[in-house]
């Protein structure tokens, strides 16, 4: 198998698909600040234009392409712009996603299909388009921004959870194919907990109140930290927010408990006290919302100690060594006491 060695961010060209708001926008800003040349793509042209202007005003380099990731030709055009402008692609970050809040029986086949086209096929298109460019560059990274619902499904999110589960199955198979062929391309799955972005407000909603994610909320920078780390370090999985890891463990170890808890508490956790607005959401048309932060800033945690340790492996190793040393010293001390 080929050893994967990724370039420093300051030497990379990075495409962020789904970059006009929320996680994608924060990630693009952070990548440019780290010295990467950035190509941002989304449906919201005004949001993209203001983002590129913000990056350039801060001394960074960026261009944008208007793109619906469900359209293969538009995704190919993004890659062509990246190569024409900056000469190559080193990392492709797939962020674009949308959601429908509705009971399973109230979610139409068309809505299921649309979420699969955007959330699943959008990443399929992006990674298939990116791979030849990454090979020509001598390797690179594919970064999938998924969801905690990649591993545990919330009620009222059957279509969204299905699309995210599909992404995880696809990238698992892709990662193994690339390893088998010796292709030096890393594939990372990032699984965020609830993140304070406009995502919830802008989705399609069939409840009588505005939807939200199940708390705790984290700041978008927690996910951006994961993306920047994955672009420069070949890593398989990252959980953005310790709550996402806890969700994974609960589903894996005690699925019946997960069923019981989410049946009782899941729907109340997804409801706000505010009347529903804009029920159609951004399923087919952009909302025009270019914010990074969503409507839950007062509840959002600014950082995740769990994620910080995951993206700082040297510190994690030191802590493990220190913990092992402390346990060893305690055992030696206990033995000495018994022998005295």
From TrEMBL:
Key word Acetylation present in the record?
A: no
Enumerate the Gene3D superfamilies for this protein: NAD(P)-binding Rossmann-like Domain
Q: Which UniProt keywords apply?
A: Oxidoreductase
A GO molecular-function annotation? oxidoreductase activity
Keyword Oxidoreductase assigned to the entry: answer is yes
Domain of life (superkingdom) = Bacteria
Where is the Ketoreductase domain positioned along the sequence? 12-196
State the SUPFAM superfamilies in the record.
NAD(P)-binding Rossmann-fold domains
Question: Any one cellular component term from GO for this entry?
Answer: membrane
Q: InterPro entries, per this entry?
A: KR_dom, NAD(P)-bd_dom_sf, Sc_DH/Rdtase_CS, SDR_fam
What SMART domains does its record include? PKS_KR
Q: Which family does it belong to?
A: Belongs to the short-chain dehydrogenases/reductases (SDR) family.
Please give the NCBIfam families that the UniProt record associates with this protein: PRK07109.1 (NF005495)
The entry's protein name is Short-subunit dehydrogenase
């Amino acid at each position: 198998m080929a050893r994967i060695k990724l370039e420093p961010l300051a030497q990379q060209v990075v495409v962020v698909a789904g970059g006009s708001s929320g996680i994608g926008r924060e990630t693009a800003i952070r990548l440019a600040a780290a010295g990467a040349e950035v190509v941002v793509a989304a449906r919201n042209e005004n949001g993209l234009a203001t983002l590129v202007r913000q990056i350039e005003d801060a001394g960074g380099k960026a261009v944008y392409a208007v793109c619906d990731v469900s359209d293969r030709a538009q995704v190919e055009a993004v890659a062509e712009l990246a190569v024409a402008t900056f000469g190559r692609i080193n990392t492709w970050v797939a962020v674009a996603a949308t959601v429908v809040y509705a009971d399973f029986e109230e979610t139409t086949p068309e809505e299921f299909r649309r979420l699969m086209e955007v959330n699943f096929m959008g990443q399929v298109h992006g990674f298939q388009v990116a791979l030849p460019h990454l090979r020509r560059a001598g390797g690179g990274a594919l970064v999938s921004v998924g969801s905690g619902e990649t591993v545990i499904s919330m009620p009222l999110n059957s279509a969204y959870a299905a699309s995210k589960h599909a992404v995880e199955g696809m990238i698992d198979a892709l990662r193994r194919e690339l390893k088998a062929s010796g292709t030096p391309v890393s594939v990372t799955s990032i699984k965020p907990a609830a993140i304070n972005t406009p995502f919830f407000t802008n989705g399609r909603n069939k409840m009588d109140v505005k939807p939200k994610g199940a708390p705790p909320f984290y700041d978008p920078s927690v996910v951006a930290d994961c993306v920047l780390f994955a672009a420069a370090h070949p890593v398989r999985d990252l959980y953005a927010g310790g709550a996402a890891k806890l969700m994974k463990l609960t589903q894996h170890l005690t699925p019946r408990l997960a069923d019981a808890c989410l049946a009782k508490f899941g729907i109340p956790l997804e409801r706000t006290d505010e009347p529903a607005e804009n029920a159609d959401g951004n399923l087919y048309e952009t909302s025009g919302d270019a914010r990074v932060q969503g409507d839950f800033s007062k509840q959002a945690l600014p950082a995740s100690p769990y994620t910080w340790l995951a993206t700082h492996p040297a510190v994690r190793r030191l802590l493990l060594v220190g913990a092992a040393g402390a346990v060893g010293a305690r055992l030696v001390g206990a033995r000495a006491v018994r022998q005295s």
